[in-house]
């Protein structure tokens, strides 16, 4: 809208940017968000897919972060039960670790720090008889089992953006902010893109949030042309996805001799996700990828515990993300704090809020803190609201019962397809499948149940424009697609829309 002045402009379409956009829009502010690429195209889609307290943070005595994360875990599970699901994790014990009573005490503390906990408590396992011990070497006899949650990370981002847009926010992907200049009580943003390489425009806002993720420092220096006292430490985390290596639905937390930990998590029915590494990173985060040394490290770390080593030929996908951590001077990358820093700069005029650090689990709390920082500049801003308001599709009291009802309602479709759609769209599955009487009504199947109907929904409602958007961020079906199927989907998306 020409001449419109937004209350808040946000640079960055990751979990922090979209979380702040949602929170602000729900408080009555007018919001504009621009993202140079796709939503969740950086760090926010390259996580270990966990909503968790961070058990290992107890080693660094970061009790506040663990407590906040566990409280948030419960809240997120309630507001997004379609994309966040409970997970039991098994921690095998061996003589190289701390004495088992010490580990048990740490897990009891982990339970205790989760106020209002609804997930099952920690228990001790006899790995000689428990199913979880079958995949492990016989030397592992004792283990511990505790609770956390899995999450579809990219969909968490998209659903925050969707809710922000439903509340009036303007979400602009494929739009780069070339410059942001403070002009007295306003910010003037010069933008380029939006699907048209020749398109430039200016947007004005009363406040600016820099949620650039691993590019936060570049935005400060090259777009806003200012300085910040906060130093950023870029840390790369890499993962591999292999053919499923155990039959049960629990995950493992393996402790390694170098003090790091490694997860092995059931993933997308037929796979196991293994990660993560922690390495200091230099260079453009866009170019981050797993190294041969990281791949070998993950295979060896898991191989220390498993009866059967993992064949490298079964690796189906690798990915790496760069975390922008507040540089607290920690000696090693894995010891650097996962907490966040919000830096407010008024500069004698319109406020600028730079966002450093954070993690998926605490994004909602970070967003609340961001709005608290900005509150003095928006006297009419409404209060906090996101702790209990479901994300789009998340208005479900009992996911298991509801998804069983959906299987009956859409019994003309493949049950596995309905189950996948339930986990992706929640109660918005009815909008996607409106009027469906047979599989033929879904249109062309591009592969593994991805149909014309779903593609059209993603384009119309979730800012998807490319095959990668759909296959690797909206659905994760890229794991199952052949090159020819991917090419066909890309060609379909390039056809003019009528």
Describe the structure.
The chain has helices at residues 15-26, 63-79, 100-113, 153-166, 216-224, 292-303, 363-374, 399-409, 415-425, 429-432, 452-461, 467-474, 483-494; strands spanning 5-11, 31-34, 50-51, 84-93, 123-126, 142-151, 170-172, 175-183, 186-193, 196-210, 232-243, 251-255, 261-267, 271-275, 279-280, 315-326, 340-345, 352-357, 445-447, 450-451. By secondary structure, the protein is of the alpha+beta class. Strands 3, 4, 5, 6, 11, 12, 13, 14, 15 and 16 form a 10-stranded mixed sheet that branches. Strands 1, 2, 7, 8, 9, 10, 17 and 18 form an 8-stranded mixed sheet that branches. A two-stranded antiparallel ribbon has the order 19-20. α1 packs across α7 (363-374). The two termini are 24 Å apart. The relative contact order is 0.16. The mean pLDDT is 94.
Keywords:
single chain; 498 residues; alpha+beta; 10-stranded mixed β-sheet; 8-stranded mixed β-sheet; 29% helix
Briefly summarize what is shown.
The protein is α+β, with helices and mostly antiparallel strands and 498 residues long.
Write the layout of secondary structure elements.
Elements: E1 5-11, H1 15-26, E2 31-34, E3 50-51, H2 63-79, E4 84-93, H3 100-113, E5 123-126, E6 142-151, H4 153-166, E7 170-172, E8 175-183, E9 186-193, E10 196-210, H5 216-224, E11 232-243, E12 251-255, E13 261-267, E14 271-275, E15 279-280, H6 292-303, E16 315-326, E17 340-345, E18 352-357, H7 363-374, H8 399-409, H9 415-425, H10 429-432, E19 445-447, E20 450-451, H11 452-461, H12 467-474, H13 483-494
Helix pairs in contact: 1-4, 1-7
């Amino acid at each position: 809208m020409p001449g419109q002045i937004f209350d808040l402009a946000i640079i960055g379409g990751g979990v922090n940017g979209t979380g702040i956009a949602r929170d602000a829009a729900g408080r009555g502010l007018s919001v504009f968000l621009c993202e140079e690429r796709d939503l969740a195209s950086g760090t926010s889609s390259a996580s270990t897919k966990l909503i968790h307290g961070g058990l290992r943070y107890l080693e660094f005595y970061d009790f506040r972060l663990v407590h906040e994360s566990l409280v948030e875990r419960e809240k997120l599970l309630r507001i997004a039960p379609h994309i966040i699901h409970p997970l039991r994790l098994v921690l095998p014990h061996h003589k190289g670790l701390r004495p088992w009573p010490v580990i048990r005490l740490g897990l009891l503390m982990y339970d205790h720090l989760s106020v209002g906990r609804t997930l099952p408590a920690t228990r001790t396992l006899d790995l000689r008889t428990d199913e979880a011990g079958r995949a492990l070497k016989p030397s592992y006899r004792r283990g511990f089992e505790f609770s956390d949650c899995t999450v579809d990370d990219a969909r968490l981002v998209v659903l925050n953006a969707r809710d922000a847009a439903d509340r009036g926010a303007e979400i602009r992907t494929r739009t780069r902010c070339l410059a942001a200049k403070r002009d007295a009580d306003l910010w003037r943003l010069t933008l380029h893109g939006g699907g048209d390489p020749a398109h430039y425009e200016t947007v004005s806002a009363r406040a600016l949030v820099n949620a650039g993720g691993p590019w936060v420092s570049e935005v400060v220096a090259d777009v806003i042309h200012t300085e910040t006292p906060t130093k950023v430490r870029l840390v790369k985390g890499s993962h591999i996805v292999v053919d499923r290596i155990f039959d049960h639905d629990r995950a493992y937390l393996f402790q390694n001799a170098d003090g790091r930990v490694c997860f092995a998590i059931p993933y997308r029915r037929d796979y196991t996700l293994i990660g993560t590494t922690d390495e200091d990173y230099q260079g453009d985060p866009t170019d981050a990828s797993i190294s041969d040394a990281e791949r070998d490290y993950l295979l060896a770390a898991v191989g220390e515990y498993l009866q059967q080593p993992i064949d490298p030929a079964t690796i189906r996908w690798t990915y790496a993300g760069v975390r922008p951590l507040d540089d607290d001077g920690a000696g090693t990358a894995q010891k650097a704090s996962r907490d966040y820093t919000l830096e407010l700069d008024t500069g004698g005029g319109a406020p600028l809020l730079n966002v450093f650090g954070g993690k998926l689990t605490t994004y909602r709390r970070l967003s609340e803190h961001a709005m608290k920082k900005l509150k003095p500049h928006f006297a009419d801003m409404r209060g906090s609201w996101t702790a209990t308001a479901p994300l789009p599709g998340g208005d479900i009291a009992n996911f298991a019962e509801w998804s069983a009802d959906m299987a009956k309602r859409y019994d003309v479709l493949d049950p596995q397809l309905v189950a996948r759609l339930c986990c992706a769209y929640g109660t918005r599955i009815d909008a996607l499948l409106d009027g469906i009487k047979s599989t033929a009504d879904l249109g062309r199947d591009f592969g593994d149940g991805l149909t014309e109907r779903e593609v059209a929904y993603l384009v119309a409602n979730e800012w998807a424009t490319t095959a990668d958007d759909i296959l690797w961020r909206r659905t994760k079906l890229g794991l199952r697609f052949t090159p020819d199927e991917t090419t066909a989907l890309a060609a379909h998306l390039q056809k003019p829309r009528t």
